[in-house]
Request: fold
Amino acid sequence: MNTAIDPWQRQLAEAFSSVDALCRHLQIDASSLPLLTDFKDFPLRVPRGFADCMEKGNPADPLLRQVLPLRDELYEYPGYSLDPVGDLPAVAKAGVIHKYRGRVLLLVTGGCAVHCRYCFRRHFPYGELQLSGQKIDQAIAYIQEHQDISEVILSGGDPLLLSDDKIADLFDRLSEIGHILRIRIHSRIPVVLPARITARFLQILAAQPQQMLLVLHANHPNELSDEVATACRLLSENQVTLLNQSVLLKDVNDDDRVLGRLSEKLFYFGVIPYYLHRLDRALGVGHFAVSDKKARRLIQTLQKNLPGYLVPKLVKEQAGAAYKIRIA
Reply:
């Protein structure tokens, strides 16, 4: 097994974990911001490359807003909960969420490279329910027993925090299940830590017999750096289908010009704009909410200004529903 430290792992270790240090890097006076004083349960983590995409001296930068812990998180909005999308009732085994027909989701880790303040799983009990040790055996057995499952979705946390060796081991086991046609990875890492797309990881993807999909998570065109473009090109060259899903966020991307530039830039990078999600209503995230009325208006403007393949589907996830709900 390879025990050498990859550059991406070093970059992850060097990520900002202090609000003061991040603000100093961005030349912003932290004392002027309405910051949370206690956020140990959901600490700050921001890779330096992602921070370098932020505008220095701008406390309202849309990328900074996504990661900065503000006192707004303390306000309790009606209808917001610890499990807004009904993950817990859909847990079939530890680390296995079986919500939708034909596909199953594996929570392979609880960690992320960046801690987005709007995260819908910020309260999820990963310590009990993420995959580890014998739980992986139970998850694989569950998938083998359910012949109707044709797609496995790797999620978390962020599945690309796993080492290349651990991903290869998991893929090897999935490749032996004949009824699995596709493996889908949901990851923000190609956007916030593109160095993670290593030559070894690309070899693992290319060796898989199933179709491979990777769903990125970019919310703003400023997140899409030259390094992200390179990562996307390498993934595409290795026969990985690239999609993107965004979350509609107040004062981040609730502007048709921003969303339009995001779609154009994604497509230029070889990524199909896939979903634009309404904010999942987790406790502590209500200050990011955009009304459905405004969301519809934004999509209508995109439809007028862009070809159809650049307009993401506006959707919301509803606990207990058999599929994501389209917001017409």
About this structure: The chain has a mean pLDDT of 95. The radius of gyration is 19 Å. The chain has two domains: 7-74, 88-326. Strands lie at 91-93, 96-97, 103-107, 151-155, 182-186, 211-216, 240-247, 272-277, 313-316, 325-326.
